[in-house]
Amino acid sequence: MLLGLQKTSLVDFPGRVAAVLFTVGCNFRCPYCQNPDLVVSPPGSPADNGFITEEAALKFLASRVGKISGVAISGGEPTLHEDLPALAASIRNLGYAVKMDTNGSFPGRIQPVGAQYVAMDLKTSPDRYSELWPDAPVDAAERIVSSMDAVRGTSEGYEFRITCTPGFINAESIDVIASLLRPEDNVFLQRYREGRVLDQAWASTVSPYPDEKLALFLATIQKAAPKARLRGF
Structurally, how many domains does the chain consist of? Predict the structure, then answer.
């Protein structure tokens, strides 16, 4: 497995100073993706583009014992990799807690990772996931709902993240998402950020929602999940 590495992060694993490992490859093609090089591999060798082997990543993590306390596995989409549970186990054997980010496309692969914390993105209403997921299976919507249940079964904590992207998040999709949430859920709404994204042509025509619109979305979500809040404002 090839991985990207961020050596230190104060924001990717709640309550912990962590390193972040980025898996290569994603089954989604969200036009607003902030990690396009993890979705579509850039030209050149993996080493030229900053990717390292699993062995090199574990060697680095072994050198950081006592300096960080967690490792976040992000992507790309981590659950595409069948050897992900083994990687997570190797990280825990070094004494680290593991967090995983996921798009929820493989509900059966979430809990086998054994992550202490899971963050799942809710990108739009489940019935619209085919707009982001090339060759989406016929049960795509059901998978997303099942993944929400799987995430709730993690051992220490979890969160659902909603990037408020115009065109995919609107009043209708927020209503649907709210209907799938529970009062105990931790939910974070965050602004779509302009910049380098997967589809630059798309980005040139889309601007982030104003604060007032985000406040309306938050109010709707909080009716279902009162702990919901805005992140990064």
Answer: 1
CATH number of residue 212's parent domain: 3.20.20.70
Of residues 24 and 122, more confidently modeled:
122
- pTM of the predicted structure, to 2 decimals: 0.93
CA angle centred on 25, ends 21 and 28, rounded to 5°: 115
Reported residue count of the chain is 233
- Residue 141 in contact with residue 127, Cβ under 8 Å? yes
- Rounded to whole angstroms, the Cα distance separating 233 from 49 reads 31
Contacts of 163 (CB under 8 A, 6+ apart): 32, 121, 123, 169, 190, 191, 192
Q: Which domain holds residue 206?
A: 2-231
CB-side neighbour CA atoms (13 Å) of 43: 0
Pure H helices in the chain: 36-39, 54-63, 84-93, 140-152, 171-180, 200-203, 211-224
Task: Tell me the average pLDDT across 98-111.
Answer: 96
